[in-house]
C-alpha cells in the first residue's frame, strides 16, 4: 500500500522550481541560460588557488562547527571595514554551507508554531516552505514595479501582536532594488514597535551599482540585537558552487541558530573556508573592480534589450535586470513569454510571477547579465524579433 499520502505535505506538494524548470528547458532547447543566476566565468584565480593549496597542504578533517576561526575573524573584519559593523567573531559569527542553509538555520531558530512571519513578494523560493515547516504562518506583502519600495500602509497591514519575524531580502532578487535608508528605518520602526526579529538575506550586499550603497538593517539604530544577518561568499566572489554562507547576530540569537546548523550540515569544507578567509581580506580594489565589470555587463544587456524594444527597469544591484512587458501590448503573460523565447529564440529567462504566491505581478521578466560579452551578444541577436513577432 502506498504511503505517499502520509508524506510531509510542506515539501511533497511543492512543484518543480521555476529555476530548475527553465534551466532544463534551456538544456533541452540548446538555449542560452539567462535565467538562473550564475556567471559563466570560473571565478577569481587567486581564490581558487588558495582553495587548492588548502586542500593539498591544509586540514581536511572536520573543522569547527561554527567555522574556521580565521574565516570568522575575516568576516568580522570585513564587515567592520565595509559597514562599520562591530562583531565578536567567536560569539556573533557562524559559517554555514551556503546562504540557503544560513537562512534555514535562522528561520528554524526563531519561528515556532503559530508565529506569523512577514515576507515581501517577490520572495525567494526557499523562504515559505521553511517557515511552514517550522509551523509559522507567512504574511505576504505585495511589492510592485517599477520601484518595488516599502511603504507605511503595507507594513501596517501585516504587523501585529502575532508577528514573530520579518524576512527581508536586500538587495532584492529578482527586482534588483537596493533599499535606501528611509525604507530600512521604516521597517526598523515596525520591528521595534512589535518586538520582531529581522532575518536579513543580504547575499547580494557587494553587488551594487552606480551610487546605490548597501546598508545592512543590523546597523540601523535599535536593530543590532534583533537582526540575523545572512551573507554569501558565493555571491561576493562569483563562486556560486562553493556554498559558503555567513550568519551574523547577537549571541542569544546566534546560539540557537548554531544548534539548528549542528543538525543540518554541521560544518563546511575547510579548504573553501580557508580560501574565502583569504578572499575577504583582498583590497578594496578587488570589490570595486568586480562591481565595475558587472556594471559594464548590466549596461551592455540593458542597451541591447532597449534597442530591441524591451522596456528595461534599471538594475541597482544583483546579477539581474528586469523587463516590464506591460507597455508592449503582448498577448501573453510573463510565464508564457519565457516559455516562448526559450523554445522559439533559444534564450532562457525567469518570469517574476514565479516569486509570488498570492496576487502575482504577471508582466515582469528577469534576465541574468553576469555573463561573458559574447554570451550576452548572442542572446540579444537571438531575441531580435521576440517583441515584433508577438505584437497584437
UniProtKB/TrEMBL annotation:
**Pfam families found in the cross-reference section:** Aminotran_1_2
InterPro entries to which the protein is assigned, alphabetical:
Aminotransferase_I/II_large, Kynurenine-oxoglutarate_AT, PyrdxlP-dep_Trfase, PyrdxlP-dep_Trfase_major, PyrdxlP-dep_Trfase_small
Kindly list the GO CC terms recorded for this protein. cytoplasm
What chemistry does it catalyse, as a reaction equation?
Answer: L-aspartate + 2-oxoglutarate = oxaloacetate + L-glutamate
* Residues annotated as domain Aminotransferase class I/classII large: 32-383
Cofactor(s) demanded: pyridoxal 5'-phosphate
The organism sits in which domain of life? Bacteria
What EC number(s) would the UniProt record show? 2.6.1.1
The UniProt keyword set, sorted, is: Aminotransferase, Pyridoxal phosphate, Transferase
Q: Which Gene3D superfamilies match?
A: Aspartate Aminotransferase, domain 1 (3.90.1150.10), Type I PLP-dependent aspartate aminotransferase-like (Major domain) (3.40.640.10)
UniProt key word Transferase: yes
Enzyme class, first EC level, given as a word:
transferase
Question: May I ask which residue range the UniProt record assigns to the signal sequence?
Answer: none
> Which SUPFAM superfamilies does the entry mention?
PLP-dependent transferases
| Molecular function GO terms recorded | kynurenine-oxoglutarate transaminase activity; L-aspartate:2-oxoglutarate aminotransferase activity; pyridoxal phosphate binding
Q: How does it assemble?
A: Homodimer.
**Protein's recorded name:** aspartate transaminase
Native species = Bradyrhizobium stylosanthis
Amino acid at each position: 500500500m502506498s504511503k505517499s499520502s502520509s508524506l510531509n505535505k510542506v515539501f511533497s506538494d511543492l512543484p518543480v522550481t521555476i529555476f530548475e524548470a527553465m534551466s532544463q528547458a534551456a538544456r533541452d532547447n540548446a538555449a542560452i541560460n539567462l535565467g538562473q543566476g550564475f556567471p559563466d566565468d570560473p571565478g577569481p584565480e587567486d581564490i581558487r588557488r588558495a582553495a587548492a593549496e588548502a586542500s593539498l597542504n591544509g586540514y581536511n578533517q572536520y573543522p569547527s562547527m561554527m567555522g574556521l576561526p580565521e574565516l570568522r575573524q575575516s568576516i568580522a573584519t570585513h564587515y567592520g571595514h565595509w559597514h562599520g559593523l562591530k562583531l565578536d567573531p567567536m560569539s556573533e559569527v557562524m559559517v554555514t554551507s551556503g546562504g540557503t542553509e544560513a537562512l534555514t538555520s535562522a528561520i528554524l531558530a526563531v519561528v515556532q508554531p503559530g508565529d506569523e512571519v512577514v515576507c515581501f513578494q517577490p520572495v525567494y523560493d526557499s523562504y515559505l516552505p521553511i517557515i511552514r515547516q517550522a509551523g509559522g504562518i507567512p504574511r505576504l506583502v505585495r511589492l510592485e514595479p517599477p520601484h518595488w519600495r516599502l511603504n507605511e500602509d503595507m507594513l501596517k497591514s501585516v504587523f501585529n501582536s502575532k508577528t514573530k519575524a520579518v524576512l527581508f531580502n536586500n538587495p532584492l532578487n529578482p527586482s534588483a532594488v537596493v533599499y535606501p535608508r528611509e525604507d530600512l528605518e521604516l521597517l526598523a520602526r515596525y520591528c521595534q514597535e512589535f518586538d520582531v526579529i529581522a532575518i536579513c538575506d543580504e547575499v547580494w550586499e557587494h553587488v551594487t551599482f552606480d551610487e546605490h550603497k548597501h546598508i545592512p538593517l543590523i546597523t540601523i539604530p535599535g536593530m543590532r540585537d534583533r537582526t540575523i544577518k545572512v551573507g554569501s561568499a558565493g555571491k561576493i566572489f562569483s563562486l556560486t558552487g562553493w556554498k559558503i554562507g555567513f550568519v551574523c547576530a547577537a549571541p542569544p540569537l546566534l546560539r540557537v541558530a548554531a544548534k539548528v546548523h549542528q543538525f543540518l550540515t554541521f560544518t563546511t569544507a575547510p579548504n573553501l573556508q580557508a580560501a574565502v578567509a583569504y578572499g575577504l581580506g583582498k583590497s578594496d580594489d578587488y570589490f570595486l573592480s568586480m562591481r565595475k565589470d558587472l556594471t559594464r555587463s548590466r549596461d551592455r544587456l540593458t542597451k541591447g534589450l532597449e534597442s530591441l524594444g524591451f522596456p528595461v527597469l534599471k538594475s541597482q544591484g544583483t546579477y539581474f535586470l528586469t523587463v516590464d512587458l506591460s507597455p508592449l501590448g503582448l498577448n501573453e503573460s510573463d510565464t508564457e513569454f519565457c516559455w516562448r523565447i526559450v523554445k522559439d529564440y533559444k534564450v532562457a529567462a525567469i518570469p517574476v510571477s514565479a516569486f509570488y504566491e498570492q496576487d502575482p505581478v504577471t508582466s515582469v521578466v528577469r534576465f541574468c547579465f553576469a555573463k561573458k560579452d559574447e554570451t550576452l551578444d548572442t542572446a540579444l541577436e537571438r531575441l531580435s524579433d521576440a517583441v515584433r513577432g508577438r505584437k497584437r
